[in-house]
Amino acid sequence: MSHGDQVNEIPSDFHVVGKTGTAPFAAIAHNAKPFFGIQFHPEVTHTPQGKQVIGRFVLNICECAAAWTMVCIKHLLSD
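Below the sequence we write its predicted structure tokens.
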């Protein structure tokens, strides 16, 4: 993993399904439910299609609407 970020502990009901030399919990899965976790940096330039990964997660998985603008964000930050 880059940036020195690392998960140090996982919940007891998860198990490791992927690791690297510097990231012992790079990918995890729940023991009984279809829940998974991965550690990677989709925002960095050397992650192919990283923007698409983030976009699909936000829109398709989280079901957020793409209805924001920078004006909305500035308003939130000013409050």
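Helices lie at 50-61, 70-78.
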